[in-house]
Amino acid sequence: xxxxxxxxxxxxIFALLFLLERLFPLRPSTRSLFRRLVxxxxxxxxxFAVAISxxxxxxxxxxxxxxxxxxxxxxxxxxxRWLEFAVSFLLMDLSSNFLEHELFSSIIPSVxxxxxxxxxxxxxxxxxxxxxxxxxxxxSNVPKDNYTVFxxxxxxxxxxxxxxxxxxxxxxxxxxxxxxxxxxxxxxKDAFERYKLTEDDVVYVELSFRPKDKKLLSEFSLDKPSYxxxxxxxxxxKKLTIPVSTNDICRxxx
Length: 254
Hints:
49% helix; 7 helices; disordered C terminus; alpha+beta; 6 strands; six-stranded antiparallel β-sheet
């Protein structure tokens, strides 16, 4: 009974929080309940296993060592016990939460362009989008061409979502950037309302520009539905020349 009581308490809290999440969701669900439960339970089991086998012994060792050694900033000044506890707690919160947050935020530049190969991916800090930097970055890094654009948002540190479907962007003059900007801000506004986010929740916004293949995609257009009919696939396959084997590639014409 002594060991069952904590299990019952933790299980009751878990059931209560699960019920509250189902009754009052903070944002619309994008995955099935079963998949979410499997992933969350697997991560929780792994976390508990690591905590029991590694974190707990290491923490106990560190506490014993720090109790025997006058180590740390608090030992430099003689304080009342309650004040020493309060200062220690604030310094621990500063070092483990605030500084970690600032460190991970600072390593992401305001604008980051990844162009090792196609597509061209540009990461923007949210506050940069409404400044004159946005059109300058597009002009400097995206050659004039016809593109398919994808918008991906990273929020709450390590969560992502796509801001709507991909869309076509004909970039032939600098004035076309205004149309791109309008679509981008409209997508972000809708996504913020749907996911109940603020700009402070966003780590960066990624724009990915993929040049359209005019030869292979001549039978398709972005206004068509996402479902592609077998007839459209057949018409596209007719434009492809795929060798049956490697010998077909190397064989000289007769």
